[in-house]
Amino acid sequence: MAALPSGLLEACVVVGASSDKLRDIYQSRSNELPLLEAEVLQVHAPPFVSKETNSSQVIAPAFSRVQKRRSFIRKKKRDRSTDTLPNGDSVSRPEGTSTTEDISVPKDLDLIALPQLCFPGGLQLASELRDDSYHYLVFTDLFGNRTHGVVVQYYRAVQSFHESLTQNGGRPRTRLYAAFAVCIISKFPFYNALRDCLSCLLVQLRTSRQGDFEETVKEFSAKLSLVPLPPPGSLHVSFSLRPLQVVLPSREDPDGPLVDMDLHLPLLCFSHTVLLQVLSCLLQEHRMVFFSSDWSKLTLVAESLLLYLQPLSWQQPYVPVLARGMLDFLMAPTAFLMGCHISHLEDVAAETEDLILVNIDDGIIQSSWSDTVDLPSIPVAAAESFLSRAECLQIHYDLDTCHTGAATDVNAVRFQRRDWQRRLNTQIQNIALELVVNTFRGVQDFLNHQHRVFNSEEFLRTREPGDQLFYKKVLETHIFHSFLRDRLNRKLDAFSRMEQKTLNLSHRNRAMTESPRPPLMPKTRSGFRNHTSPNQKLSKRLGASLPNLDQPLNDAMASFVFSSHRAPAAQKMSPDAGLKSPPKVVRVFRLPEFPPPLSYHYVKNYYSDMVAALGKALNATPPDDSALLARYHYLRGLVNTVSNRRLDALEDFQSLYKTDAEIFPSEMVKSLVDSMPNAERIQAEKRPEIKGLIGRVIRDQEREREGQENRPEEAAVKHFQLPKKFLHLEEFVKCVQESGIVKDQGTILRLFDALTVGHQKQVGPDLFKDFYTIWKETEAEAQEVCLPASVLERMETGESVFKLSSSVKTSRGVGKIAMTQRRLFLLTDGRPGYVEVAQYRDLEEVKVSSSPFLLLKIPSLKLRVKGKREPFEANLKAETELWNLMIKEMWAGRLIADQHKDPQYMQQALTNALLMDAVVGCLQSSKAVYAASKLAHFERVEVQMTLPKTTTETLKHKINPSLELAAPQPIEVLYYTLGHLWVSLGGGKVMVFDASSWSLTHTCQVGNARLSCMLAVSGDQVWMGSEDSVIYIISMVSMVCNRQLTDHRAEVTGLALDLDKYSHKVAYSCSAEGTVLVWDVPTLQVRKRFRLSCDRLQSVHCSGGMLWCSSRDSVMEVWRTGSVKSRVHLPEPQRASFSAVVLLSEREELWGACSDSADLHVWRVKDTARASQRVVLPDCSGCFCMIPVKNQVWVGAAGRSSVKGKLYIVDPERYEVLKELQAHADRVTALCSAEDRYVLSGAGRLDGKIAIWKKMQTTGRLQEYLQIPSSRLSADSRVRTPTIG
After folding, report:
1. For the chain, what is the mean pLDDT?
2. Consecutive H or E run containing 1193
3. Are the CB atoms for 1253 and 1207 separated by under 8 Å?
4. How far apart (Å, rounded) are the C-alpha atoms in residues 749 and 770?
């Protein structure tokens, strides 16, 4: 049978005093009631019901997994006639001798320590009946896996055979009560639900006969083993355990925690300030002990606090309840989190050192060496935001419900309270998550994913001075190390989502350009950043989805983004913002009533009823509610798995791809497939969807095995360290990238040449240390510059000082020359003032001259500026040559950036200039300036990078999606939807840009393979065809990809949209081996499939009731039934293959292009047999993509000359090239049109950029065209679909 995940019940254990001890105490006449030793009396663990098969395999129909088991020895009476009943009943037959019993228990269940934990204060008899008491346990194994327990202590009278003597004249005895504990052990923290279950069990025990005690507990345990756990999402599961209806809540997302407790308990126990102190101590991993007089508070408060820190996970020893015999655990030298009874507080404080003591009852925190705690606090900005939000929480249920009437139904009251608690828990989790995000925001900026390095020193330097001690301690903890590992693995968890959601626009614009170092501006404290909600941004964009690129956008973007690398402060929002979020709709699936006799056949019928109920729920759910459908399919698949209906289970799990692939149980499906007998495999081959699922599971297993062999160690997180040996080129590149100074390999190669001028080609550790130190010191010195207000008023928004000279004499006075990313200005001495020197684009000449002084000639720097008669001259003395190099590089970078409309060139020039400064500072030799000249890149290539006038007039802006990567990535697909540009890079990475500012808004990971095509099928869905044969569906609202279509068996190369004869929306997809699928968009079901005979099918489109399919060897006109009406081939002498095809419907023409030819071929649609018209593209080696834009055809190609990437604008009226544009440094791989106003082009790996072009205006009437996209081509989603003929 397939392996199941852990179910609700791991085991149910009954703990109490042995009957022998109870009899002895009862028979003794002592008035003192001693403490007793608790023992395990019963252990109940799955399987409870099973059926032996002919293959000697046991089928156990229970959702709780059948665990590996081991033996456990407990005492037992040899003679059944002398056995003692579980409640203490005994008979007067002392001749019964004691023996032992070897029982089978789950392997990972520790029954040795369990009795102490069930009675942490000791087991003691009572002379009067006491109330039931509940508490909670957490067990942690050596690997950090946690198991949870809920314990109820209840008292029953100890009755004896000797009591009958009182009726025969004997002396009456005092009645005694003994405590018994029932502990439910589960892998999941269902604290409230399991407490409800135990409450129902006690009702049954009180009304049952004493002899039925063990059978009652066993039946209760068996029922819990039949309960399926709800999948992550908004579907809960409920079941009846009379008199209560018990609800199992689901976790919100697959990686999130399961919450079934009252998270506001710490807010009731501590003031907000003390609560922050406790959280700070947890983050710093101190040795902490919680104290309370109530055992239940210890676990509930500790668990709540750890949930506050999510997704950071406590990595140290964790024992929230210590029995009195376990206090020696507190002597452990490592960090830990433990809990004790309040009676041990003084002893623990006196006998242990370096402990943080948290008194839950009094709501105070202290240390074992002092009554106060003097430790680093959580950063002020994050703490203030938390305090303002926490003040607005309504944590008192009675205040919230005082306006409601009294309920007469206990389950209705419980439902109302549970719903209130769920909403409050969500608010608390949001506030706590924001606290964590505000505390660790920006960590991602100091990670090097390629080498798995965290630059902790640089991260600390960007923190506020008063917060640095806190961060120094936190950075050394295991909890932070685990958090870093998740960031390096690019884990998309709650932290990542909230950080992305609350990033302001300036930080997102780093996708276009990035400062080489934090901007050097005076430090100010103006409070939190202003926050704009996504809804407000959307409303502002509705009127203008695209920016006006006729204005000089690149300057504005550059100046705006250069300031974005500063460590962002916490966001300032109104105190109640986010607390009153729209409530999520939660549905509850009610399980059928448990079968009375728990035999195999009755249990099998019970599962059949559950499958039928889930089928009804599926039929009643609308198709557009895919999330709810997925949860029902998951539950039904789980029930079918337990019922041994493997094929039905696989069919349900296959449906998860179309509804919500995030909850797909990969391990369970692999186990199902592996456990299938041959007969079932033959049946599975006849069911296409199951056959495809099995094939995918096998392929995934093979890829996983290959990946494990080649995968680097993901757990390792390194901190940057200066080298201790000589570095050759490869090691030098790695070390510089790890340091965070530069990522671009080309720049690092030039830096290596500069540092090794006149030496052996290796960099010594001392030289690297000097270079790194000077880089950091120069940065720190400039940070200390305090610019007066009069100077700040002259500078533009985002403009920063990056280099400041020493005080020098100039032709405009004495002062310091300041270099920003835009200009040079003089900061005058004496009374600080501002004297404009020049903006880089206005420079006409930069040279070194000499000024006579007495008999000496002092070198000086002379600048000639447009519009100014007199040159600017500065006596920079020894710095003259360096400033000459830096200014020339900045001047050349500005000119190239203006020509190419690419602000990154200016950024690169600034990086080069700052590296020159550091090289000269560390070499301190006569060759230092010559060495720095090796970094003057743009000054040397300025002439080669000059663009023709036609290109500069049409080009408006450039974006670099690969900016934060070590090397450029090819642009695989470009696609435009209203307000958004979708960009696909290699390996399934998708970046989404806001088309109103071309700023990055989202980054999504869509599978791990290259994407081939995109299509918006509705206002919320974008389909993406992938090389791994899957169509991924991403929501444009949530930007989450959790649905997949897996019916193809080869690379998905094309997508198209159309209406059928009943005006229902249908989608077409094609794959490389020739298969075409027709999809019903609302239900995501395959209506029809057929296969075309061709060489690599590349695209599909529909027009006039026909499909047009392009392959390498032909273009096919296909009936919707799948039969080919006609084929179009390239002319006989032409041995090339099609790379892109466009259909111009108004002209009834078919245009085709080839990847190794400069010719465009044009056919008349009505007569494709006739010879084609040919358009020759000048200086072209091949075409790779082509789109129609109104009355033009744009072709992306590769050039034959030094210009590798070219765009051709062709006039279809005259079959001639209107413009030839020098677009990229590599071939053009993707094109798309944005609202017929702009055309966007993407280039290959050597360039990796996106160019934005203004559409060329031509004369003639407006025409509309229909595109058949190639495998890397996507059309404007707003173009109408005309008919042909």
Report:
1. 82
2. strand 1192-1199
3. yes
4. 18
Helix (H, G, I), strand (E, B) or coil at 1169: coil
1052-1059 and 1041-1045 strand pairing: unpaired
Other residues' Cβ atoms within 10 Å of the Cβ of residue 393: 17
Integer Cα distance of 358 and 631 in angstroms:
41
Number of helical (H) and strand (E) elements in the chain, helices listed first: 33, 59
Residues 6+ apart with CB under 8 A from 718: 451, 452, 453, 454, 738
Triad 925, 929, 933: Cα angle to 5°: 140
Q: Please, is 681 exposed, middle or buried when counting C-beta atoms within 10 Å of its C-beta (0-12, 13-18, 19+)? A: middle
Q: What is the pLDDT of residue 78?
A: 44
Structural tokens at position 1017 = 């099928």
User: What is the CA 681 to chain-centroid distance, rounded?
Assistant: 37
DSSP-based three-state secondary structure for 106: strand
What is the 8-class DSSP label of residue 1126? E
Cβ atoms of residues 106 and 68 within 8 Å: yes
Phi, psi of 958 (to 5 degrees): -135, 150
Q: Which two tokens stand for residue 961?
A: 């999606």
Measured CA to CA, the distance from residue 35 to residue 122 in angstroms comes to 6
Q: pLDDT tens digits, residue range 1221-1263?
A: 998 989 999 999 988 789 999 999 989 999 999 887 654 433 3
Q: What is the largest CA-CA distance in the chain?
A: 135
Residues whose CB is less than 8 angstroms from the CB of residue 59 and which lie 6 or more positions away in sequence, other chains included: 1, 50, 51, 53, 644
Residue 441's alpha-carbon distances to 164, 387, 435, 576, 1244, in angstroms, are 74, 18, 10, 21, 33
The mean pLDDT of 132-144, rounded to a whole number, is 89
Report the amino acid identity of residue 136: Y
The first and second tokens of residue 708, run together, are 């494990």
Q: What b/e string do you get for 285-313 counting C-beta neighbours within 10 Å, with b at 16 or more?
A: bbbbbbbbeebbbbbbbbbbbbbbbbbbe
Which spans in 441-477 are helix H? Answer: 456-461, 468-474
pLDDT tens figures, 85-101: 334 444 344 344 445 55
Closest CA to 1153 of 985, 1267, 1281: 1267
- Quickly count: other Cβ atoms within 10 Å of residue 902's Cβ: 23
The amino acid occupying position 1194 is W
678-685 vs 688-710: helix crossing angle, rounded to 10:
110
* Contact criterion met (CB below 8 Å) for 571 and 502: yes
Residue with tokens 């190639």: 1270
Rounded distance between C-alpha atoms, residue 752 and residue 744, angstroms: 13
What percentage of residues in the chain have a pLDDT greater than 70? Answer: 83
